[in-house]
Design a protein that fits this description.
The complex is a heterodimer of chains A (251) and B (58). Chain A has 251 residues and is mainly alpha-helical. Chain A has helices at 4-9, 12-44, 58-85, 88-120, 128-149, 153-167, 170-180, 200-232, 237-250. Chain B has one domain (6-57). Classes of the chains: A mainly alpha (251), B mainly alpha (58).
């Protein structure tokens, strides 16, 4: 396998150029997929035989919860890359992905609460799945706070990477909480490996929304990372030229 | 289409409040996630432009 792309990724300039080319495609896909998924989920999917129409919350709840967990896993991977290969871009990724992950966790928790009220009769229960998701939110807060608290960029990167890697233990706890404990939360409705238990009209919008949320995450992450790269590279000639070009365009 | 009328669609079989509020909150959060980095970028470019002007005058 050719590993030059991996070494190139360490170059902020290369990252800035390639991400600028990906960003429009990711943004357009995100908007299209989320709009189509939401319309299909809200208007065309049949109601659940037990939960009626309240089940339509699934089309944002599940993609947001997936993304909240995947984002945390990618923080841990970026943390490893930063610690092992001393790649500067990895720390940018950790710092910029953490707030998006935190917001996705908030969406999952809030929509879960709103869904819980008509389904379980309570906004919140101290159930294993819910509690583990709340811990995930606090892990995100920890990484964000740690990133801001340490002014030395290198020590901050190291501390955040370690917290991200240690905290990843919470992810299997979230995933298997519904199997390990007796919980109110329903078990997984959606897996990549098995044939879905839902009919196609219910399942397809969920797939579209999930892909849409991942595209959304990628687009927002690239937007945030590109600004941070410009900031951190503000002493280099290419970054100064790029800022001058952008100022000229907006003026 | 799964609903017979638009009012039925809005009512969501008595679950309208729950469904629509969770969609509204989620889309607001998604929009916020797009708006914040865009605003931060504008602010950064503005500050840089001001700094460059100041340096040019000196």
């Amino acid at each position: 396998m050719n590993w030059t792309w991996f070494h190139k990724l360490g170059s902020p300039k290369w990252f800035y150029e390639i991400s600028g080319r990906w960003l429009p495609w990711l943004s357009v896909s995100a908007v299209l997929l989320i709009v189509v998924g939401a319309v299909m989920g809200l208007a065309y999917a049949p109601p659940d035989y037990q939960q009626g129409n309240s089940f339509r919350i699934i089309y944002i709840h599940v993609p947001a919860a997936f993304l909240a967990q995947s984002t945390y896993i990618s923080l841990a991977i970026a943390g490893v890359v930063g610690l092992v290969w001393k790649m500067k871009i990895a720390d940018v990724a950790v710092q910029q992905a953490a707030p998006i992950g935190a917001w996705m966790t908030v969406i999952a928790l809030v929509t879960g609460a709103v869904w819980g009220k008509p389904t379980w009769g309570a906004w919140w229960v101290w159930d294993a799945r819910l509690t583990a998701m709340l811990i995930l939110l606090f892990l995100y807060f920890g990484i964000i706070a740690l990133g801001h608290a340490i002014s030395n960029r290198e020590s901050s990167a190291k501390a955040c990477a370690i917290l991200a890697i240690v905290g990843v233990v919470n992810i299997p706890i979230i995933k298997y909480s519904v199997d390990w404990w007796n919980t109110l939360h329903q078990p997984a409705t959606f897996t990549i490996t098995e044939k879905p238990a839902m009919p196609m009209e219910m399942w397809l919008p969920l797939l579209i929304m999930t892909i849409g949320f991942y595209c959304f995450f990628a687009a927002v992450l690239l937007m945030r990372m590109r600004l941070e790269v410009l900031r951190r590279e503000s002493r280099t000639r290419w970054a100064q030229a790029e800022v001058a070009r952008q100022i000229g365009r907006s003026a | 289409m799964n609903f017979n009328s638009f009012s039925e669609f809005l009512a969501m079989g008595n679950h309208g409040v729950y469904v629509w509020s969770s969609y509204a909150i989620s889309f607001a959060i998604l929009l916020l996630n797009v708006a914040l980095p865009l605003m931060a970028r504008q602010r950064y470019l503005k500050n840089e432009a001001r700094r460059l002007r100041r340096e040019a005058q000196q």
